[in-house]
């Protein structure tokens, strides 16, 4: 059994489409979707290229998760948390 992490560009509407396309793969055990960081963790016996191909067929932009994605996600979240305009928090 292997775990595959993907970065999928999506909005909340696309989560249903993502789960539907992954449900067609019989070798998968578990699918975890984190909409905030756009990270999808898939656990099962399917090959990682087969999983990526299925997600891309559904019309979603996807790539394997990398360390750069972790750094960019941390930077973006800290930038938005510290964003101020005339001493008022925007978010």
Radius of gyration: 16 Å
Average predicted confidence as pLDDT: 81
* Sequence stretches where pLDDT stays below 50 over 5 or more residues: none
- Counting helices, strands and paired strands, the structural category is alpha+beta
How many alpha or pi helices? 3
Instruction: Record the strand order, biggest sheet.
Output: 2-3-1-4
Q: What is the helical fraction, as a range of percent? A: 40-55%
Strand content: 25-35%
Largest sheet: 4 strands, antiparallel
- From the N-terminal CA to the C-terminal CA, the straight-line distance is 41 Å
Pfam families: HMA (PF00403)
Protein name: HMA domain-containing protein
Subcellular location: Membrane
InterPro entries: HMA_dom (IPR006121), HMA_dom_sf (IPR036163)
Structure description:
By secondary structure, this protein is of the alpha+beta class. The protein contains three helices and six strands. The strands form two sheets. The chain has a four-stranded antiparallel β-sheet, with helices on one face. A hairpin with a 2-residue loop joins strand 5 and strand 6. The radius of gyration is 16 Å and the shape is globular. It starts with a strand and ends with a strand. The model has no long low-confidence stretch (mean pLDDT 81).
Topology:
Elements: E1 2-9, H1 12-23, E2 28-34, E3 39-44, H2 48-57, E4 61-64, H3 67-81, E5 84-85, E6 88-89
Antiparallel strand pairs: 1-3, 1-4, 2-3, 5-6
Q: What's the gist of this structure?
A:
By secondary structure, this protein is an alpha+beta fold. Helices cover 41% and strands 32% of the residues. The longest helix is centred in the last third of the chain and has 15 residues, at 67-81.
